[in-house]
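Minutes, methods subgroup
Present: GH (chair), OT, SY

1. OT presented the first of two proteins processed in the latest run. Sequence and structure tokens recorded below as shown on screen.
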Amino acid sequence: MIGWIQGNIIDKREDAVVINVQGVGYDIFCARALTENVSEGQTVSLHIYTHVREDVLSLFGFETKLEKELFLQLIKVSGVGAKTALSILSTYKSEQLISMIGAKDTKSLCAIKGIGKKAAEKIILELADKMKTFSIELQISTRTISSPHDDLVSALVNLGYKQNIVEQTIATLAFEETIGFDIKFKETLKHLSQ
């Protein structure tokens, strides 16, 4: 089973992208927010859910683990299939969806194509308690986690460099993810000092 994929986009549609991974094109369904904000040739990393039915094998891609977890919770609800769950995630951001379900907002859920009042009530009934946990995890993660990139930018800005110049320099250097903070810091500082 495929759990994560990284590659270049070679084609995109309203609800899917085709990603080239070492010469193999994977057709991956994804939320509209992703397809609207990417372009052909761009490198993306997606968390993958492999959907298997008797006659179909489909891949669904998500930008974040949270989005994938919400999708997995939604498809557990009776009557909500993978395409409907993706439609829900295409309509609302993960944080909005968590709030809506937690607040038992059936009206907003009914605004989604393919979701009627009964389906909205069923989603809320089955997921409202779980959304409280998601909400707590989301609050904790947004308060405590910063990316290595953010840390590097912050450290250099604290030395007096302008943020936009620091960002441009880091982008120009294009560090590999495996390089440690100290090396990135020294290399960026060296280029900024020139």
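2. SY then presented the second protein from the same run.
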Amino acid sequence: MEILNVKKFGPLARYSDPHLFLTMDALYRDGRVGRKGLLGEVGLGEGSMRSVLAILRDWRWVDVRQTGVMLTDLGRTSFAGFNMTFVDVGDGGYGVGPCTKGILVKGASADVTNPMAVRDTAIRNGAKGAVVFVMDGGRVTLPPHGDVYQPDPEFAETLKHHGMGDGDVLVLVGASSPLAARLAAAAVGLAIR
């Protein structure tokens, strides 16, 4: 799924779809947040953050005031429509890189036909690697290798406990920093969508 399809002339933008997703995620999670508070969450400079907020404001997804930035009702509905959420499940021995972040994409198992392509998307977006889990028939699988329950029933239950249901995809992304892991995970989730 592509969020930004705005083609502009001039200097190359320092932000991308994952930055918009991280901005919306922070606002969805925390409510009203100051622009400076968003800078650390999203990993952008002040000028780029202003541009991101201007785009979201133009779409009527955020309300920017002196007291902070917050999602509008339309913004909350739009963000919820992505059907994606970050999850912290550890790496279960599957993660690559010192920092791991999971992205749960609801109802997207049919869209994941090549787990290596998902991993490649993560790497192109700054990750060291990624592992794809799919739930089908109440069983967590690691395509194309099969059932996760046999070698690791505890981790499979952990994934289910964090909201994974039939037809869902959970991608664990490993990177060198928490921010890099979140950006790569967002990129992967949006690519699956």
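Chair's summary of item 2: The CA atoms of residues 130 and 173 lie 4 Å apart.
Next meeting: continue with the remaining queue.
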